[in-house]
Amino acid sequence: MGQITSRSINIGSAKNQSRCEVQSDAKLSRAHILEVWVETGRWWQGEERRTCYRLLTEDGKVLEIYKEPSAGEWCVLRWID
Amino acid sequence: MSHTPVHLHVHSGFSFMDGASMVEELVSQAARYEMPAIALTDHHGIYGAMRLLQACDRQGVKPLIGAEVTMEDGFHLTLLCETAEGYSNLCRLLSQAHLNHPRGSPRVSLQCLHQHAQGMIALTGCRLGKLTYLLRARRYAQAEEWLRTLTGIFGRANLFIECQHTLKPGDAWITARQRELAQHLGLPVVATANVHYATAQSFPAHDLLTCARLGITVSQPHPLRPINDCNGIEDALHWCERYHDCAEAWQNTLHIADRCSSDVLPRNQNLFPLFPVASGCTAEAVLMHLVREGAIRRYTEITPLLRRRLKKELRVICTLGYADYFLAVWELVRFAQERGIRYSARGSVSDSAVAYCLGISEIDPVKRGLPFERFLSLERSQKPDIDIDFDATRREEVFQYVQQRYGAAHVAMVGTFSTYRARSAVRLVGKALGLPEEVVDRLAKRIPPFCYADDLERSFAKAPELRQSAFSPQQIELYLQLCARIANLPHHLGTHLGGILISRKPVEEAVPVQMSPMGRRVVQWDKDDLEVAGFIKLDLLSLKMLSAVQQAEEQIQRAQPGFHVRDIPYDDQDTFEMIRSGETVGAFQIESPAQRSLHTRLHSQCQMDIDVSVALIRPGPIQGDMVSPFVHRRNGEEPVTYLHPDLEPILRHTCGVPVFQEQIILIATRLAGFTPGEADQLRKTMTHNRSRQEMESLGKLFVERAVQRGYSPQLAMQVYEWIYGFAGYGFCEAHAASFGDIAYKTAYLLRHYPAQFYAALLSCQPMGYYPPNTLALQARLRGIRLLPPDVNRSQTACTVEKGAIRLGWCRVRGMRCDEIESLLQAREERPFESLADVCRRTTLQQDTLERMVLCGTFDGWHPNRRRLLIELNHCIANRRACGSLFPADWLQNPLVDTPDFTPWEKFWYEWEILGLSIDCHIMSHLRDHLQQQGILSSYDLKQQRDGTWVSTAGLVVCPHRPPTRSGRRVLFACLEDEFGLTDVVLFEQAYQSYGHWMLTQPLVIVEGRIQHRGQGTSLIVYRVAPYHPPATDDRHPLSQMHSPFQHTSPVTGSVTLRTGIWGESPKS
How many other CB atoms are there within 10 angstroms of residue B966's CB atom? Predict the structure, then answer.
């Protein structure tokens, strides 16, 4: 998958939602939300807290993403595989 | 039933470095979210239980008592008290966890849990609980087995599987597995949030505390360091979201809260032991009998006034049920009297004629017109609080007596909570942030010792030495904010100085007990918590001045066997003349510069003048500008007036100025007809609770009642506002009288037996206001010689030898108690004859012997100390050789002529080892150089006219920065030279420019104006510079002197952090 842009991710905000859509390179796919957690980050350096998601894509890839609080962009924390 | 879930797993600041919010803050947050209840489950303790009770009472929230314990296998378990029996069991469980395991590592055994499970509800614990661990390890069978074990201990109805979803990785998976297991075993689940702070804003503070506790910096990850701020008290919406598919989890929080009683803690019970009396007799009857006997002993005549007073006091004591308490204290002081242990009551107990008749106090309150209600009244909700000072060297005997008398299980020390002050906060935050240690250390040392962490910002702004730190303004701002956040959080349970509680039932049944570092049992509550519970504490304090008085008396009795301190007359004019001259260095309470200055202005003539000075020289009266009006009136410079003639009998002895709290009580009684108990409540409210509404309401009541008694409304309001202005600064007269009594007696000893008194003071160091060197100087100025320790003459304590003070072994730095004992024992057989003899017959270590040589101990045998050091090496070698393969005479005697140390070197070694100079002051070595520069001595200053501009120099002694009325910074200190002390003061501007020199340099030159007040002389300083010794040689001893705050010994390399205090007690 390529770069994930802010228009490419839709994470359900209503409760019970465990799926999301991921768009990259004009391709839309769904992903299963495996886990959600919050990280406070380097608060002593002014970093903001962020909510992180671990996703399982339709093609079996696992990645962790979070939304940059100030810029509003989605960023990839890491690809697991 | 409320639908707002309840937090059942909550840590406050009383989890010591694992909780970042105080109990009150947590309860407020719960109340804000309309939670019907909140639990407190601190680590291994119920330290905050009483505060929870009180905070919940105020906020209308139900308090639930519990604790989180660590089992012997290291896993956590959460326990909640369902019933009073459960509470007692929890107390026993926690006590055993602390007492049966190493201090700091309390553990609960399964067996203990079995024995004390009744009445408790167990939750399976947080991520550090055994269940969570087993599930994460996929050891499902063992997880099931563990749950069956817990079910066997607590019963199915009292065990809940604890689910914690705080948005950390893995939480959802663990919760799912827990629910599966719960369903499989038919056990209920309950949701908790493992709260460690009230709101997310406190997370940084918690993170810092966690890093400090784990010994890491914020840049380092750690499995025990939470990665998010979701362990706060969140609202119901968050809970319902996380447990949307398991409503049972949060609903069970309400079920548990409903089941647990809020009334499990002891409250307002009388837990003091009953005094053993004969069959058919009562404690009250015994008390009355003893008081009657005591009254006959104390008073020449039992007047109707005295009889009425005693009857009234006894009625109050017996009505309130405190007869047993008074009898216990009477028994305790009787023990002290029989053993010859010197003691003195302090505080408001001296307002009691019953205490006087029982021999508890030595102040006659009837003669002084002191109201009993300042100590105890029917209206006052507080329990009696009797504080007794004992000879510091014998207080332990008193403790042992109490333990033996009542049984160890019924006695414990009162706890106290140490909180983060500025210095400790700066160190903790700096270290956790990963800042360089030397930078943090430098900054911390510049902070005033008594600065609070949340007061740092103000201190930084006003203190020049703090502004000279290495940080940028932004760094400082973050730093200060973080320090303020952890301010006032407790970081460990300490032991109250002398507070002891004696309980009718074993202490562990009412409050958990743990071991203090000194090996004493201490309860997990402080004195305020204990009072709410119903315990009465007794303060058994130690006062080194009593030890000094005892030693002085013994020394005096060698020449005058019939002398007793108790027989000192109270009207000795020579003593008052000395007090008026300000020459009272060493006397209890009246030796500080402020005290000495006051007495020179006051022309003190009687005991009351001393008592008033004890009350006046405190921050409150000084800030409130009470001192000058009193002095002017006392000296006839201002007329003594009273707002009304009825106030004269109350205020006459303080020249119309209210000084004592008892006077407030008497004024309210006389003018407004308050009962004495009501008047004391008024005084307390004025002193502690000054909300505008309450003050107005009190004022209205006061005026109404005064008008009813025939006083005009204008007068009544005027008097009320007047006493309101003074109430905040008032001092307990009974306490002032107790301390004033000791102050006078020590002044008498100083005047008439200075050698014995200074010898005693030097033996009891560290104590008092001044360092040992200043006391030594004062002795020399009185014509008393000091003699170095002598191997055949010195005792442990300093003694008097033909009018001179022979320094004792207690003054030799680093000399251990067993070494002293060895020396004295060997000497008892026969005197020592040589250095070799000493080495052979004692266990003195080489370093101790070297120090003894260097401070002149063996000068009587040979004055050349360097030669003695060489000989010592030979003697030590001989000692080691004895019993070896090599015969002793194989070692050649190296005695050769060698030049001795210079007088300057000898002086320096004496200073280092004894903490004082024996026969001359350091300034005498520098006088020639100073005179060449036109720098005057303290003697010369006294000859100068008032207002003259002068320069002087000296050792900086006792610099301090007390709070002032204007709020500006002022620094007071003494400069010491060979002629005595000069009191100096730096006002704001001078302090900002030069204050750091006074606080960091041992020797300074100052410029300023002379001020003569009464018989005293002081200097208002405008400029300060450090004094540099004339020699540039690094070996010059002055180049090795550091700040009086920090002294590095060239002999041992150890660093002493004392402000001008150089002495140490013998090491044991």
Answer: 10
Q: What φ, ψ does residue B62 adopt, rounded to 5°?
A: -85, 130
Residue whose pair of structure tokens reads 């989180």 in the numeric block: B68
Looking at residue B886, its pLDDT comes to 46
pLDDT band at B379 (very low <50, low <70, confident <90, very high): confident
| Average pLDDT rounded to a whole number, residues B559-577 | 96
**What pLDDT is stored for residue B880 in this prediction?**
74
Q: How far apart are CA B80 and CA B87, in angstroms?
A: 8
Residues from chain B that touch A51, judged by Cβ atoms under 8 A, are 167
- Joined together, the tokens standing for residue B914 give 């004894």
**DSSP summary character for residue B660:** B
Contact A49 B173 (CB under 8 A): no
Peptide bond into B766 cis (omega under 30): yes
pLDDT at B737 over 90: yes
Distance CA B651, CA B629 (A): 13
d(CA B467, CA B465): 6
Interface membership of A49 toward B (CB under 8 Å): yes
Contact assessment for residue B621 and residue B729, using Cβ atoms and an 8 Å cutoff: yes
Q: How many CB atoms lie within 10 A of CB B180?
A: 12
Could you tell me if B498 and B387 are in contact, meaning their C-beta atoms sit under 8 angstroms apart?
Answer: yes
Question: Do B367 and B393 touch, CB atoms closer than 8 A?
Answer: no
> In this predicted model, what pLDDT tens digit does every residue of B1012-1046 receive, in sequence order?
987 788 999 999 999 876 654 445 555 555 443 34
Q: How many residues can be counted in chain A?
A: 81
Domain holding A39, by residue range, is: 2-80
Q: Residue B104: count other Cβ atoms within 10 Å of its Cβ.
A: 10
C-alpha dihedral (B592, B595, B597, B599), degrees to nearest 10 = -140
For B629-640, give the DSSP string.
Answer: HHHHHHTTSS--
Please give the tally of structural domains in chain A: 1
Q: What is the pLDDT of residues B276-324, one digit of tens each?
A: 999 999 999 999 999 999 999 999 899 999 999 999 999 999 999 999 9
Query: Which helix (H) or strand (E) covers residue A21, if one does?
Result: strand A19-24
> Number of helices (H) and strands (E), helices first, in chain A?
0, 6
Using left for φ > 0, alpha for ψ between -120 and 50, and beta otherwise, residue B30 falls in alpha
pLDDT computed for residue B392 by the predictor:
95
CB contact under 8 A, B169 and A37: yes
* Residue whose C-alpha is closest to residue B754's, from B805, B707, B829: B805
In this complex, the residue of A15, A16, A38 whose CB is nearest that of residue B167 is: A38
pLDDT band per the 50, 70, 90 thresholds, residue B459:
low
What are the backbone dihedrals phi and psi of residue B103, each rounded to the nearest 5 degrees, phi first?
Answer: -60, 135
DSSP-assigned letter for residue B971: E
Residue B263 to residues B35, B56, B88, B267: CA-CA distances in angstroms?
Answer: 18, 12, 12, 9
Q: Using CA atoms, how far apart are residues B653 and B673, in angstroms rounded to an integer?
A: 22
Give the global pTM: 0.84
Smallest CA–CA distance from A37 into chain B, residue: B167
The predicted-structure confidence for B713-726, as pLDDT tens digits, reads as follows 999 988 888 877 77
Instruction: Specify whether the CB–CB gap between B390 and B546 falls below 8 A.
Output: yes
Question: Residue B877: which of B861, B866, B888 has the closest Cα?
Answer: B888
Q: Would the CB atoms of A40 and B207 count as touching at under 8 Å? A: yes
Q: Which residue in chain B has the smallest CA separation from A54?
A: B169
The per-residue pLDDT for range B122-178, each reduced to its tens digit, is 999 999 999 999 999 999 999 999 999 999 999 999 999 999 999 999 999 999 999
Quote the pLDDT of residue A4: 57
Interface check for A78 against chain B (CB to CB < 8 A): the answer is: no
Which amino acid belongs to residue B586?
Answer: G
Distance CA B833, CA A52 (A): 84
User: What is the C-alpha to C-alpha distance for residues B745 and B572, in angstroms, rounded to an integer?
Assistant: 10
Cβ atoms of B712 and B668 closer than 8 Å: no
